[in-house]
Amino acid sequence: QVQLVESGGGLVQAGGFLRLSCAASGRTFSNYAMGWFRQAPGKERNFVAAVNWGGGRTYYADSVKGRFTISRDNAKNTVYLQMNSLKPEDTAVYYCAARFSDYALVPQMYSYWGQGTQVTVSS
Description:
4-stranded antiparallel sheet
């Protein structure tokens, strides 16, 4: 089992920034690729960003490319999502997820999930 706890969400004005953190415990963190997903009310859970086990490969949804940065610190068992130039359409609950081996772009491929953290961007 891998336990994931997100933090860092909040209310921010458009153009602002937030940094989300996801702390992992349980199995060996460096064995897992990590992803960030988000879900707005009434909508599906969508891929945001992912990073491979070592942090050397990342992938982003087109909607956040150039604004968001995913990174990880395996010594701290933590993955981050730096979100800059936030837009109202970024408003959602953000979830981190873990997947053994390489990353994937669909939520069904991830085995472990955090409880989510709310991000609200006001216009």
